[in-house]
Amino acid sequence: MRTVTGLYDNYDDARTVVNALEDAGISSDDISLVRRGDDTDESYAGEGAATGAGIGAVAGGTGGLLAGLGLLAIPGVGPVVAAGWLVATVAGAAAGALAGGAAGGIIGSLTSAGVDEDTAHVYAEGVRRGSTLVSARVEDDKLDLARSIINQNAPVDVDSRRAMYREEGWERFDEGNPDLTEEELARERDRARNYRQL
């Protein structure tokens, strides 16, 4: 299987991509969606959200992958709303790290799935700053279709986003960075919107 991934500044675009991938016959088991949690999500209360290893159900969609959205804490990102194969991999890595085992979190999960490490850092930082990540594992015969679906719904240009982050001295995703406040996230969204227009 090959991995196709897109980062979206607009959550509705990401949801559209997930639905289109499912409509194209790609199993929900092979699709993931990860976005930062916000004030519109249910409470993060509960042991699972606090440890980063558990998922609690929240409303998110009518069926398929979106019906299985849950809450999870990812080191360096904070609380996220997520579902799919990537989430299970990240949760496993987080549980292992808490138990003194192998670390890796979201970067390790993405690179294990075949995403270039430099690009994985941009994706992880993008989620940290409020974007939504959609990733699908597909067989070769559906690779072009999945790429087309990912690309037709305004994904972030990874090179442009990397350049925007590096203008402020960013080099790579750091799990030790503090969570961003809602005000900081709003500034990041505005900055990304304006940067694209340059």
TrEMBL record:
Q: Where is the General stress protein 17M-like domain?
A: 5-69
Q: Tell me one Pfam family matched here.
A: YflT
Q: Where is the composition biased (Basic and acidic residues)?
A: 184-198
Domain of life of the source? Bacteria
Span list, region Disordered: 173-198
Q: Any transmembrane segments, and where?
A: none
Which InterPro entries has this protein been placed in?
GSP17M-like_dom (IPR025889), Low_temp-induced_all0457 (IPR052948)
Please identify the protein, giving its name as recorded: General stress protein 17M-like domain-containing protein
From which organism does this entry originate? Phyllobacterium zundukense
